[in-house]
Amino acid sequence: MDTAVFLAVLFAALCHASWNALIKVGLDPLSTTTLISLGAGVMALLFIPFVGLPDAAAWPWIIASVIIHLFYFGSLIEAYRTGDLGQVYPIARGAAPLMTASVATMFLGEHLSLLGWGGIVALVAGVFLLSAHGGRDLARIDRRAIGFALLTAVTICAYSVVDGIGGRAAGNPHAYSAWLFAGIAVVMLPYALWRDGRDVIPAMQTHWRRGLAGGGLQLLSYGIAIWAMAVAPIAIVAALRETSVLFGAVIAVIVLKEPLRLTRIIAALLIMGGLVLIRLQ
Question: Could you give the number of structural domains in the chain?
């Protein structure tokens, strides 16, 4: 992977962590997700006149990705509604890179070296450790929440592969990203209204500025990832995106003044080691 692409994906991960921190406004998961989706859609509409249309070959992939993202948001919302963050997040974000790497290897002909696989495994182990909350009672793990978390991981894998292929077919991955987020916004609002009626609208009105800012960061973050997947292995980009967990931990320690525990240090070392191996593969 080219150094510029490597650094760009790390920057995208930082943006991902930033918008996640920005939108912690106390809303329910559905309102928060819809707020950010609408913000990203508005920002995408502003860019469409400058990026134009993607090639015709990309439209089936855009449509497929919009549908997959709807299932992604739905499963993630249900996972957070029924389970603890410490149970859901490690499974959803940690399992997805391994799934994506396996699919890319088996079906897209992407061949990773032992260093690459070692880097992905180390990075995923760091994600699991960094995301895990101490003191959980394993006997009380909610099977429904775990099921939705695994479904979320499957959808992350699915849209990563679809968008990697679609971004390459688009001719212009930036146009692909803009139209993708515009499409997601179009389907998310009716979905939210169907799930929670009109109560979701007043819940978002107070925080619309954060929605725009968070949506802009989301568009930038995943837009960079789609561009990177157009020029680099999808499996590697998907794994590197999960370093957002590390950036999120840094934000938590520095900005939110959360304690720097030993587990966070070990997890950070695992993620950094994974990054080194991925860079060397």
Answer: 1
